[in-house]
Each structure stands twice: as structure tokens, then as C-alpha cells.
Design goal:
Helix content is about 40%, strand content about 15%.
């Protein structure tokens, strides 16, 4: 376990105090203050995470689980302590249920390739929503092609809102898996996971939740949700890239074959047969992302110190102000509901391409996302090729939101 780590004091929410923890925010692109509103793509990293990773490489670097020397034991302790921090953060009951991966994408692919290949048969159905990220569509298409299963899609309403009853009625005796985003990376819709899980379990289906856009904004407790799998990425919650988490109920993980073969996932290898390691190592072939796991754990501690409820309340103000100001600009069309959204605000402007908006705002020091956001089926639903997206984090300010919307208004006046 690494010690002497930076930690902010437990105080009421102070955005300026938090901003001081993020060195990248001091940059001035094109001579303008950096306004970073692309947090759904990746969040910036606080000093404590950067320092933790640096400290690991300076004092601890070694491979884990394989050595009896001082550094290996120290690295192993830090790596496994990181797993325990993740377990507590998401409310998992057993540490064996926490598998480290490279990110949400690999976590979903692991379940699709391992659980899906072993359990899906011709005629079985996999239920998704129309607003899933490609990472929660393509793996299921691939496994459906291999097994003969079929994809079913829960739609949106014509006005871009989501009716949970329309999803629940699509869970039938043929449904074997429900794979849904906890929070949409385009619409900011928060899905009520509990009724989905209850309905799915009633017909013998399992539920995978893509939590990539949720964990930085909502308090997640997988035991309370009762979902079978939950996946998220470290870089979306102020941690490093290259690290993700797959939570899986122990009984399911025990029943699944390995995802990859190699070192550390084995117990005994001969040319005749191989026996596999215990959980979670059965799914962690090769040298794992050690520094990244430790960095993720530090990020989760940092977020916990501030408090997710506190963060959520602040971000709600940011999103509400963004929606309010966008509504004052002619020809701006908000995608999704005006209320009840978390983290992101996506929009289109008649006659103006989102890439032009992003380029114009970039010159004002404003980072936002323009494109299909890896959600092309959703763009097709709205009849647009792309959209622009503001996405907030705890270090954003109301002044930044107002500056960005003012710059957008200036942009549109110029382009039109």
C-alpha cells in the first residue's frame, strides 16, 4: 500500500479548491483559459493520481504474484489493495468478483466471449437500447453471429425520452441477456437498473450494466442493483487510461471459461491439459496494468473524499444551466430530455455541422466533442450524422458553462 499521498480535506464543495488539484487546467490554449467540457470522453487527472503512479514507478515497480523478493511483494500488496478499494467503492460483496481489465470495452468483450459463447444458443435474444455505445453493441453482434442468438432493441419515444415500460415489455422468455448503459453518453438518461434486473431475473436472464458514464456521477452499489455484471473504465473517473473493472457475481464468473490464455491465469500447465487459477486471476492473463490499477484506486479514494452526492449536486447545477442557456439560442435542438439527465448535454443546430462548432470553440479555448459519439444507431434515430456535446465534471464552473454557451452563440452568428 502506498502512503504519504495527497488528499483534499473533507469540506463543503469548493470548486476552486478542486480545480487547484488538476494541473492541466492551468493551460491556456491559443492564449485562452482552458475550458474542458469533454469529460464524457475522458476526465482529467488530479495531482494525487499522477503522484501515485509516479511514486509506484520510483519505489515499487515490479511484477505481481510471481516473485518472493521485496519489490514484488510490495507491488502485489499495492495491486491487491487497489482491488479492495474498487470492491468497496462499488459495493461488491467479495473481492473475487472484481476483475481488472483494460477498460469498459474489454470488460464487455470478456463477458460476450466467455459467458456469451458458453450460454447463448440459436433463437436466444440479447436486449439492448437504441442509445448504447458501440462497445455495448458490437461485441453482442459478434457473439450473436457465432451462436445464432438475435439482438432486440428497446426504442426511445419520438421526443427522445425513454419509457422504461417499453424496455421491460421486451424482456420475454426468449431473453437470455439484457445489456444496457447505466447512463447514456449522448442523452444523459439514467436508466433505473433495479426494475430491469428484477424483470430479467424473473425470466432467467442475466443483466450487464455499462457503467462507463455512471460511476463518476452516481453512487453505484452493485449488491443493491443486483446486476450480474457491471463494467467501467478508470479514465472516466479521474484515473489513468488502460485500466477498467468488470464486476461479476461470483457464481457466474466461476462458471465461465477463461477469456484469454497466458501467465497468471493458470494453476498447472502440461501439453496435455491446463487447469486454471482461482478468481479473479482466471480472467487476468499476463502482466496486469499494475500502476494503472493503483492509480485508479487513488482516484476512487479522491472521489470518495469529496463525496459522490456532493459532486452530483454540483454537476446538476452545471447541466441545468447549460440546458437553460442552450434553450435561449435559436435553432439549437437538444437531444433527449431537458430534465433528469446526468453529465452530458448533446445538441444539433440546423444548417451548422457540429465539427464547425467544435473547431470554432476550440479557438476560444473550449474543448467539446463533435461526432457520433460511438452511438451511430442513436444518431440514425434522430436523423442526424453527428451532434455536439458538452460534458461536465466536478472541476467545471458555472462561469465556464456561460462562457462556452456565449462562444457558441457567437459561433452561430458568424457561421449563419
Amino acid at each position: 500500500m502506498l502512503t504519504n499521498l495527497h488528499s483534499i480535506p473533507q469540506t463543503e464543495f469548493d470548486v476552486e479548491l478542486i480545480r487547484a488539484d488538476f494541473p492541466i487546467l492551468q493551460q491556456r490554449p491559443y492564449g485562452k483559459p482552458l475550458v474542458y467540457l469533454d469529460n464524457a470522453a475522458t476526465t482529467q487527472k488530479p495531482h494525487c493520481v499522477i503522484e501515485t503512479i509516479t511514486q509506484y514507478y520510483q519505489t515499487t515497480n515490479s511484477n505481481v504474484h510471481r516473485g518472493v523478493h521485496f519489490l514484488s511483494e510490495k507491488a502485489t500488496d499495492a495491486y491487491e489493495h487497489a482491488r479492495e478499494i474498487v470492491r468497496r467503492f462499488i459495493g461488491a460483496q467479495q473481492i473475487e468478483e472484481i476483475v481488472f481489465t483494460r477498460g469498459t470495452t474489454e470488460s464487455i468483450n470478456l463477458v460476450a466471449s466467455s459467458w456469451g459463447a458458453a450460454n447463448l444458443q440459436p433463437g436466444d435474444e440479447i436486449l439492448l437500447t437504441v442509445f448504447e455505445h458501440h462497445s455495448n453493441i458490437v461485441p453482442w453482434q459478434l457473439i450473436a453471429e457465432r451462436t445464432g442468438a438475435r439482438l432486440q432493441v428497446a426504442p426511445l419515444e419520438e421526443d427522445g425520452t425513454f419509457d422504461i415500460e417499453r424496455l421491460l415489455e421486451r424482456i420475454t422468455e426468449r431473453t437470455r441477456l439484457v445489456a444496457v448503459a447505466h447512463v447514456s453518453n449522448v442523452l444523459g438518461i439514467v436508466l433505473p437498473i433495479e426494475p430491469i434486473v428484477e424483470r430479467a431475473h424473473a425470466v432467467g436472464a442475466v443483466v450487464l450494466v455499462d457503467g462507463a458514464q455512471a460511476v463518476a456521477h452516481l453512487a453505484v452499489n452493485v449488491a443493491q442493483l443486483d446486476c450480474d455484471f457491471y463494467a467501467f473504465s478508470g479514465h472516466k473517473i479521474y484515473g489513468p487510461t488502460g485500466i477498467g473493472v468488470l464486476y461479476g457475481k461470483r457464481a457466474l464468473l466461476e462458471s465461465m471459461p477463461p477469456y484469454q490464455g497466458g501467465g497468471d491465469m493458470i494453476r498447472r500447465v502440461t501439453f496435455e491439459r491446463t487447469t486454471y487459477n482461482d478468481l479473479p486471476y482466471k480472467f487476468e492473463a499476463g502482466t496486469p496494468p499494475i500502476a494503472e490499477a493503483i492509480g485508479l484506486a487513488r482516484a476512487l479514494e479522491y472521489v470518495s473524499t469529496i463525496g459522490l452526492n456532493t459532486i452530483a449536486a454540483w454537476e446538476e447545477q452545471l447541466v441545468s444551466r447549460c440546458v437553460e442557456l442552450l434553450g435561449q439560442i435559436d435553432d439549437v435542438r437538444l437531444l433527449g430530455p431537458k430534465q433528469g439527465r446526468t453529465g452530458v448535454v448533446s445538441f444539433v443546430v440546423d444548417g451548422v455541422h457540429p465539427h464547425d462548432i467544435a473547431t470554432f470553440l476550440d479557438r476560444q479555448g473550449i474543448a467539446l466533442r463533435a461526432g457520433h459519439h460511438c452511438a451511430q444507431p442513436l444518431m440514425d434515430f434522430f436523423g442526424v450524422p453527428a451532434s455536439a456535446r458538452f460534458s461536465v465534471a466536478m472541476y467545471n464552473t458555472l462561469e465556464e458553462i456561460e462562457y462556452a454557451i456565449s462562444a457558441l452563440d457567437e459561433c452561430l452568428n458568424f457561421l449563419r
